[in-house]
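A favour, since you know our structure tokens better than I do. Would you make up a two-line entry for one protein for me to read? Write everything out right here, beneath this request.
=====
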Amino acid sequence: MNLIAEKLELAKRLLDVEDEGLLLQIKQVLDNDGKDFWDDLPENVKQGIERAKKQAAEGKLTPHNEIMAKYAKYL
């Protein structure tokens, strides 16, 4: 399918949307215009994510099922 046909199909589908939440989500995607959310994160959050990625690469993570078993009594 070519680009113009894709746009027309999306426009038709958009006209049928009645869910305001979905429309807001679509608007956010379109407003994003290729911007990476990473750029808007605070520096301390970026550092935490990078630290977590490094720990994951080094195998220093606790499996999800172990965490769930440990904290199940609190849920």
The chain has four helices and no strands. Helices lie at 3-16, 20-32, 43-57, 64-71. The mean pLDDT is 92. The chain has one domain: 3-74.
